[in-house]
């Protein structure tokens, strides 16, 4: 990824489909709340777990959007991005030698974070044949006596795949049987297009063993603010809080004020952005199919993950040649782990004009391969 | 009205030049279905026209003067404000006309080539109408936002080329 990133960054006038963040700018009311926070002089630390006012808003949001109840005083921590939440969750639950199942293709940092926490990542690859969903029998096969937890991420980066409540139920059953914990990264939960988001924490017996990770980056277009949160039973959050308080102390105060505004008034903006992503997804995926890059329909997030297998190139070769010849940046699928090879990740979090131009260029590139 | 119709309306309100093909893909319909919906919305006069938002100040020779005029009128028995409104909106200089609540009755948006032209319209045509009691003219000095479109170069995309 780094080599490819350096190459892409060194070139001019490229159309980037390689960006894993919204192309919208944080809604104005949210930016305004941050400015106001500074004007009123809120420049000191907050409680380690985050401002209680924000945690109360997060609890209300989780209840309203996902029917999940968490106690703002003991079961919610505001973190420096979902990334920090993932890190402290793993460090809180993993003992040296513990195995953590990572369902791939997935976000690039999961396996390294398990290793950093002293654990051993165990990769389970999913494929396009199952729409990149995890099958219960795959999970069952990967479990050993050392397995401590499983990391899930739906909607998924990079595949955009989602899982319904029924499909998650099969996973939950095995998790419960083997007394595992689940790290459920639901940062893209708002970006589901065809059915409402299902959280594994909602299934019977799962709330007590699920660490749910989310944040403001994707839904509210607040990536640079570095603000995430985690909800879990209090025995887990108290262990996580110990790590958080010694490493981060607390998330930035003005960002927390902005987040309160986001939760109180930003849902209309979220709806508009999600509508726009859905329309672009429809456009993009249909166009990929037309130009000979078969693409499963991603139910969430803002990524298309078309197959490039029929070109005979590896995902890295495809991405590099496309960048050099047509100046379109995509991310080779193999960087997302097992099951990712043979695909490229194309983000549609960019303007329709850019998407159209990208499709034209990729089509030209495809013809040049014949 | 179903969701697809609303989606189409929102998309063409944002960009009336979007092609039928692109529109169809975005709302997940065939081109024929999309065209049928648009045709029907046009027939029903839901879609009244297609226009562009243009920053005329960037085209020197076509600069215009816009004024918003607050008009107090005497409504007429039976037709209320509609009669006088119709007499006003028929003037080609009138770009928009709204019935308002509050300190005055009608808000008239006038566009002319020069300030004199607007002044002449107000004094000779608008003020002389029987029902018009008074007018207050406000000239527009600068357009910052119009029809939801911001009249500046907008915010740049600051994202780096590849992020996870």
* Low-confidence regions of chain A: none
What class would the helix/strand composition of chain B place it in? alpha+beta
Q: Which sequence of SSEs, written as H and E, runs from N to C of chain A?
A: HEHHEHEHEHEHEEEHHHEHEEEH
Shape of chain A: globular
User: What's the structural domain tally of chain B?
Assistant: 2
Helix count from the secondary structure assignment of chain B: 5
Radius of gyration of chain A: 20 Å
Number of strands of chain B: 6
Approximate strand percentage of chain A: 5-15%
Largest beta-sheet characterization of chain B? 4 strands, antiparallel
**Which pair of protein chains has the largest interface, and what are the residue counts?**
A-B, 28 and 17 residues
* Strand runs of chain A, count: 12
Return Rg of chain B in Å: 21 Å
Largest sheet of chain A: 7 strands, mixed
Termini Cα gap of chain A: 27 Å
Number of helices of chain A: 12
Structural class of chain A: alpha/beta
Give start-end ranges of low-pLDDT stretches of chain B.
Answer: none
Description:
The complex is a heterodimer of chains A (370) and B (164). Chain A has 370 residues and is an alpha/beta fold. Chain A is built from 12 helices and 12 strands. Chain A has helices at residues 2-9, 28-39, 52-66, 81-93, 110-116, 136-142, 165-177, 234-247, 253-265, 267-290, 315-326, 352-369; strands at 15-16, 76-79, 99-104, 120-125, 147-153, 181-185, 210-215, 228-231, 303-304, 328-329, 331-332, 344-347. In chain A, the strands form 3 sheets. Chain A has a 7-stranded mixed sheet with strand order 2-8-7-6-5-3-4, sandwiched between helices. In chain A, helix 5 links the parallel strand 3 (99-104) and strand 4. Chain B is an alpha+beta fold. Chain B has 2 domains: 3-43, Arc Repressor Mutant, subunit A (Orthogonal Bundle), CATH 1.10.10; 58-142, Lrp/AsnC effector binding domain/regulation of amino acid metabolism (RAM) domain (Alpha-Beta Plaits). Chain B contains 5 helices and 6 strands. Chain B has helices at residues 3-14, 20-27, 31-43, 82-89, 115-126, and strands at 65-73, 94-99, 106-112, 132-139, 145-146, 149-150. In chain B, the strands form 2 sheets. A 4-stranded antiparallel sheet of chain B has the order 2-3-1-4. In chain B, a hairpin with a 2-residue loop joins strand 5 (145-146) and strand 6 (149-150). The radius of gyration of chain B is 21 Å and the shape is extended. Chain A binds chain B through residues 1, 4-5, 8-9, 14, 16, 18-21, 23, 25, 107-109, 157, 275, 279-280, 282-283, 286-287, 329, 331, 352, 356, and chain B through 7, 10-11, 18, 22, 25-28, 155, 157, 159-164. Chain B: This is AsnC family transcriptional regulator. Chain B: InterPro entries: AsnC-type_HTH_dom, Dimeric_a/b-barrel, HTH-Siroheme_Decarb, Tscrpt_reg_AsnC-like, Tscrpt_reg_AsnC/Lrp_C, WH-like_DNA-bd_sf, WH_DNA-bd_sf. Chain B: Keywords: Coiled coil, DNA-binding, Transcription, Transcription regulation.
């Amino acid at each position: 990824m780094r080599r490819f990133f350096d190459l892409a960054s060194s070139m001019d006038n490229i159309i980037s489909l390689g960006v894993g963040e919204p192309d919208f700018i944080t809604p104005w009311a949210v930016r305004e709340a941050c400015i106001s926070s500074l004007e009123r002089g809120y420049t000191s630390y907050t409680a380690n777990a985050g401002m209680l006012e924000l945690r109360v808003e997060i609890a209300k949001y989780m209840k309203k959007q996902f029917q999940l109840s968490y106690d703002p005083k003991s079961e919610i921590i505001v973190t420096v991005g979902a990334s920090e939440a993932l890190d402290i969750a793993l460090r809180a639950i993993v003992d040296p030698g513990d195995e953590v199942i990572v369902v791939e293709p997935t976000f690039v940092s999961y396996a390294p974070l398990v290793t950093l926490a002293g654990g051993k990542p165990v990769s389970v690859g999913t494929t396009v044949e199952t729409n990149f969903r995890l099958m219960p029998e795959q999970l069952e096969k990967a479990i050993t006596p050392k397995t401590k937890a499983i990391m899930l991420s739906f909607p998924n980066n990079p595949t955009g795949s989602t899982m319904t409540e029924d499909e998650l139920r099969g996973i939950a059953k095995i998790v419960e049987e083997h007394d595992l914990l689940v790290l459920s990264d639901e940062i893209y939960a708002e970006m589901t297009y065809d059915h409402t988001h299902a959280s594994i924490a909602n299934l019977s017996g799962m709330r007590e063993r699920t660490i749910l990770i989310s944040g403001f980056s994707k839904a509210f277009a607040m990536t640079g603010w570095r603000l995430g949160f985690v909800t879990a039973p209090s025995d887990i959050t108290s262990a996580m809080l110990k790590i958080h308080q010694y490493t981060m102390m607390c998330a930035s105060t003005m960002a927390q004020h902005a987040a309160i505004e986001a939760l109180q008034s930003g849902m209309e903006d979220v709806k508009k952005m999600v509508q726009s992503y859905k329309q672009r997804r429809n456009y993009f995926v249909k166009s990929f199919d037309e130009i000979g890059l078969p693409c499963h329909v991603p139910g969430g997030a803002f990524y298309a993950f078309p197959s490039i297998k029929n070109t005979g190139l590896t995902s890295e070769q495809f991405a590099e040649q496309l960048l050099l010849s047509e100046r379109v940046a995509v991310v080779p699928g193999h960087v997302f782990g097992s099951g990712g090879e043979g695909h490229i990740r194309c983000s549609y979090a960019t303007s329709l004009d850019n998407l159209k131009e990208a499709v034209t260029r990729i089509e030209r590139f495809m013809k040049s391969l014949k | 009205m179903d969701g697809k119709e609303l989606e189409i309306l929102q998309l063409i309100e944002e960009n009336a030049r979007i092609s039928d093909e692109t529109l169809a893909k975005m709302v997940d319909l065939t081109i024929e279905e999309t065209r049928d919906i648009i045709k029907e919305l046009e027939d029903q006069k839901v879609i009244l026209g297609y226009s562009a938002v243009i920053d005329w100040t960037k085209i020197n020779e076509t600069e215009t003067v816009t004024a918003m005029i607050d008009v107090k009128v005497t409504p007429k028995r039976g037709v209320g404000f509609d009669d006088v409104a119709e007499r006003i909106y028929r003037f080609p200089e009138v770009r928009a006309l709204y019935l308002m609540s509050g300190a005055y009755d009608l808000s008239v948006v006038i566009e002319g080539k020069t300030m004199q032209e607007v002044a002449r319209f107000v004094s000779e045509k608008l003020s002389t109408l029987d029902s018009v009691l008074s007018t207050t003219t406000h000239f527009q000095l600068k357009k910052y936002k119009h029809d939801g479109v911001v009249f500046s170069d907008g915010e740049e995309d600051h994202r780096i080329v590849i992020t996870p």
